[in-house]
Specification:
The protein has 235 residues and is of the alpha+beta class. Among the domains are: 48 residues, no CATH class; 66 residues, no CATH class; 32 residues, no CATH class. Helix content is 23%, strand content 23%. Strands 1-2 form a two-stranded antiparallel sheet. It has a two-stranded antiparallel ribbon with strand order 3-4. A hairpin with a 2-residue loop joins strand 11 and strand 12. The chain is elongated, with a radius of gyration of 29 Å.
Length: 235
């Protein structure tokens, strides 16, 4: 029993250090080289998870200070004094989140709509034109950012749109067929891979330790025989 526990612990230690197929298994793995708890924490799902960095930190394991365009996040000049260096939605950490009328990677493009430059294909949710910081939406599209449309008369954001089995990506255009909605797919595949990897490491550790013990025992028996141990006197 003790042998099995040692193998399991050894396997878990190896997996925690390697990270398996995930970023982390424990909080101390999300603090950079010195494991600073102020940098981030591990969001664990079953076995293995992702590092959630705190404000001002970024990187695979929160090891880097957040910067925008080569300027530390606390300096507004990194975003031309027209935005904030932050974890920008859709872009990740280290990107400028511009004020409404400014856009571009450096927030230096005036006349933008909701932080998106007028010449950006994503402006006005790809369904309108940005004119003097105002979205002029295409027909059948509405909202400040032209982000509202319908499929078969149901709003694109409603949970029952496309029979709850697809995504309403444009006016009356459902995509996804019979597949589950992308936001409903359980994130279990990665956890399963990590679990199998941990099991392989545990089994491998047990086999290696067992072979080593057998080898040591064999050497001891041979050494004892060569020293006269086990000699049987002849009558």
């Amino acid at each position: 029993m003790m042998f099995f526990i040692v193998c399991v612990v050894l396997g878990l230690v190896v997996m925690s250090v390697m990270g398996g197929h995930t970023e982390c298994n424990f909080d101390f793995q999300c603090g950079g080289f010195f494991s600073d708890p102020q940098r981030g924490a591990c969001d664990v799902e079953f076995f293995g998870g992702s590092c959630i960095c705190r404000d001002g930190w970024m990187g695979f394991r929160c090891e880097d200070v957040m910067e925008c365009n080569g300027v530390v996040h606390t300096d507004p000049s990194g975003c031309s004094n027209n935005g904030n260096c932050t974890d920008s939605p859709g872009n990740g950490p280290g990107h400028c989140h511009c004020e409404a009328t400014w856009g571009g990677p450096h927030c230096d493009v005036p006349g933008s709509c909701f932080g998106v430059a007028p010449d950006n294909v994503a402006v006005c949710s790809t369904h309108g034109e940005c004119i003097t910081s105002v979205c002029e939406c295409e027909e059948d599209y509405s909202g400040d950012e032209c982000e509202v449309w319908t499929c078969d008369g149901i709003l694109n954001t409603h949970p029952t749109v496309c029979s709850s089995r697809g995504n309403c990506e444009a006016q009356d255009e459902c995509f996804g067929g019979n597949a589950p909605r992308t936001d409903e797919i359980p994130a279990s595949t990665n956890a399963f891979i990590v679990f199998v990897s941990a099991a392989v490491v545990c089994v491998g550790s047990c086999v290696a330790i067992g072979v080593l013990l057998i080898f040591i025992a064999s050497r001891r028996r041979r050494s004892g025989r060569s020293n006269g141990h086990g000699y049987r006197k002849q009558g």
